[in-house]
TrEMBL record:
One of its GO terms (molecular function) is zinc ion binding. The gene is add. It comes from Phytoactinopolyspora halotolerans. It catalyses: 2'-deoxyadenosine + H2O + H(+) = 2'-deoxyinosine + NH4(+); adenosine + H2O + H(+) = inosine + NH4(+). Substrate binds at H19, D21, G178. It holds the Pfam family A_deaminase. The active site is at E208. This is Adenosine deaminase.
Length: 376
């Protein structure tokens, strides 16, 4: 059966790919911009919300990324960073997210005179504050941080060192983001090699706006633990007229090695990586049992949430609570926090949460859902 909105909201969700500077509340952007005299394309929060979605709906990653100028502009002081991070944790918790890895690029927040370390400390303060407020509101969440380096810039080694410096203080991994075409991940090999020597984790935005060579470099040259998007791995999968599928060597490697795909359906529609949710490779990749995870990417630019992404996928592919649990477990298995902590979240939070939802259906006289998690 189709899950109800109440069930989707209540279902424990796990999010691995969410940008801090892509998830601000429009009201907060308006308030912070007024404080610093930053001119916005719209001064009314509702209009600004629409502006972000319409402008990001450009069919090109480069133009999509231009919208970040207005969010980054209002995130240049410790107070603003702390506020935005706290609200991020609260908003995710209110949406039923129980564990999230949120990323941002510290190098984009130095315009007000903060150092890289001060940026990280302000954001961590905000996440702890947001976690505390969420717990008080009865929606506990754990937020971990990934530090991003911009792939067109040359600060990745510095950011990788920052990850190691703050690995005991909430930072669990590294990422590179920004325009993909023309900026291959191997430009940042020094950073990746350093992180591997430090036994640290990293993901790489790859296979979003550029195809297989980007994914291949991210995995086989750089050693990425996960793929940010990775959706273009479908270019290495052929489906014949009878529906038989054949995996090329790279696709087979990704599936065999259980490389997590941080799939972000709505974002992909906006940047032109997919035509529609119904045609999104998520359905095929899930059917072929890749390690798929569901993500928001940029909640502001896509006007989305984890609940909305799950709703869209459910409508397109018929997913129910069984699949939602599978996606959440997949994400936790792929998270960058220690194994015992991942296991505790799976066994103490995610599975009991889905069991409770199933029990409610049974109580309501509906048939029990198939909450029999597939092995990921
Ligand atoms: O989907 C994306 N692909 C590549 N880069 C992205 C995406 N979403 C956000 N970014 C960039 C813009 C942000 O300023 C930066 C750090 O969060 O990451
Ligand atoms: Zn992203």
């Amino acid at each position: 059966m189709a899950p109800t909105q109440a069930e989707i909201l209540a279902a424990p969700k796990v999010l691995l790919h969410d940008h801090l500077d892509g998830g601000l509340r429009p009201e907060t952007v308006v308030e912070l911009a007024a404080e610093i005299g930053h001119e916005l394309p719209a001064d009314d929060a509702g209009e600004l919300r629409r502006w972000f979605v319409e402008s990001a709906d450009s069919g090109s990653l480069e133009r999509y990324l231009e919208t970040f100028v207005h969010t980054v502009a209002v995130m240049q002081t410790a107070e603003a960073l702390t506020r935005v991070a706290a609200e991020c944790a609260e908003d995710l918790a209110a949406d039923g997210v129980v564990y999230a890895e949120v990323r941002y690029a510290p190098e984009l927040h130095l315009g007000g005179g903060l150092t890289l370390d001060e940026v990280v400390e302000a954001v961590e303060t905000g996440f702890r504050l947001g976690e505390q407020r969420a717990a008080e509101a009865g929606r506990p969440i754990r937020v971990a941080t990934l530090l991003t380096a911009m792939r067109h810039a040359a600060r990745s080694s510095e950011i990788a060192e920052l990850v190691i410096r703050y690995r005991e203080s909430g930072v669990v991994g590294f990422d590179i983001a920004g325009a993909e075409a023309g900026f291959p991940p191997t430009r940042h090999l020094d950073a990746f090699e350093y992180l591997r020597r430090e036994n640290a984790h990293f993901t790489i935005h790859a296979g979003e706006a550029f195809g297989l060579p980007s994914i291949w470099e991210a995995l086989q040259w750089c050693g990425a633990d996960r793929l940010g998007h990775g959706v273009r791995i479908v270019d290495d999968i052929s489906v014949d007229s009878e529906g038989h599928t054949r995996l090329g060597r790279l696709a087979a490697y990704v599936r065999d090695k259980r490389i997590p795909l941080e799939l972000c359906p709505s974002s992909n529609i906006q940047t032109g990586a997919a035509e529609s949710i119904a045609e999104h490779p998520f359905g095929l990749l899930a059917r072929l049992r890749f390690r798929v995870t569901v993500n928001t990417d940029n909640r502001l630019m896509s006007d989305t949430s984890m609940s909305r992404e799950l709703t869209l996928l459910s409508e397109a592919f018929g997913y129910d609570l069984g699949e939602f649990q599978w996606f959440a477990v997949n994400a936790l298995k792929s998270a960058f926090i220690p194994f015992d902590e991942r296991l505790a979240l799976i066994n103490d939070v995610v599975k009991p949460g889905y069991a409770a939802l199933t029990a409610q259906r049974t109580l309501a006289g509906l048939r029990p859902d198939r909450v029999s998690p597939r092995s990921a």
